[in-house]
Amino acid sequence: MNTLSIVIPALNEAENLPAVMASIPFAELKDEGWDTEVLVVDNGSTDGTGDIARTLGARVVSQPVRGYGNAYRAGFSAATGDVIATGDADRTYPFDALPRLLRTLVDHDVEFMTTNRLVGGNSEAMKPSHSLGNHVLSAISRVLFRNELRDSQSGMWVFRRYVWQRLDVRSGGMSFSQEIKNAATRAGYRYVEIPIEYRKRGGQVKLNAFRDGTENLRQLFEHNFRRTRPVLRPVVATVGPGYAAGQGYAGQGYSAQEFDSV
User: pTM of the prediction?
Assistant: First the structure.
C-alpha cells in the first residue's frame, strides 16, 4: 500500500469537522492502494475541536502557538505518510477529489502539486475583496518567482514528504501557503497546478484581508532575495485547462491537454 497523510489545520472548527471528515473518500482511497491517516492540528481551539476530531477518527496534533504555518509545521512533523495532502477545516476544499489528484501525482511522477481556486464557477465561494487580493498576490508572485502559478494562496497541496523535509520554509502565518509553493518550484521539484472546485466556507471567517495581505506581500520580497539550493533535474510544467505554469528544460513540461479539471 502507498501511505497518505491528510493534514488539516483547525482553529475553532468543531462545527465543520464532521462534514470535512465525511467528505474524505477513505474507501475509494483504499481501493486505489492508499493507506490513509488524517491528522487534525488543533491550533489553540476553545470549542472542543480536538475532541470532536478524535471522535471522528482523526489523529489530533496539538499546536498551541497559533498561526497557519505553525499548525502545518506541527502536522508535517507528525505525518507518517510518504505523500502528504492538505486542506482547510472550513469545508472549502474538495477532499473528495483526492483520488483523482493522487492519480495525477503518481501517473506523471509529480513531486509537488498545488491547486487553483481562481477559475470559473468558484466566484461565489470567495468574497470579491479576497478574490482581488489573491489575484494581485499571485501576479506579483509569478513575476518574482517565474513559476506561472495562477493561485499562489491556495491551501490544498499534495506532495511527497521528502520535499517538505528539504525545503527552507519559515513563515508561521498565512504566508506559509505561498512560501511552500515558491520554495518547491524554485528548488526545482517537479510540480503541477490543477484547477479545483472551491466551496463556500462554513462558520466564521478568520482571514484578515489587510493584515494577512500586507504580510504576504512583505514575505514575497523577503523570500525572493533568499538563496535557494536547486534540485539538479528538469522541472515539470504546471498545467490545467487554459493554464501552463513553469516551463520544463528542453521542452519536458507537460501540455495543458494532459490534465483535466478536478
Answer: 0.86
